[in-house]
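REQUEST FORM: STRUCTURE PREDICTION
Request ID: SP-0412
Submitted by: Lab K.M.
Chain count: 1
Length (residues): 92
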Amino acid sequence: MNVAADIILAAGTITVLNEAVFAPAAGGKVSFQWRVIPATGILALLIDGLAELSPQLALGVSLSVLATILLVPMGTAGSPVGNLSKAMGYQK
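STATUS: Completed
RESULT:
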C-alpha cells in the first residue's frame, strides 16, 4: 500500500476512536458504527488502485478525506477535534 491508502486507514481509525472513545469522554453516548471498518478497507483499496493511475490525485483525495473526518461532525458523535477539545476541558 502507498501513502494515500495509509492516510485513508488513519482517517478510518480516527473515526472509530471518535465514536468509541472521544465522544463518550466528551459526555456523549457510545454509538459505534461497525460499517466504518469494512468501508475504510474498501476505500483504502480503491485509493491504492487510483494511486497506480495518478499518485498526486490519490494523495489529494486522501488528504481531503482526512481533513473532512477531523473537522466535520459526522453521525451522532460530532467531530473528533470538537470531542477532543470538550474532553480536555477547552470547550463546553
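NOTES: The CA atoms of residues 2 and 69 lie 20 Å apart.
Reviewed by: T.R.
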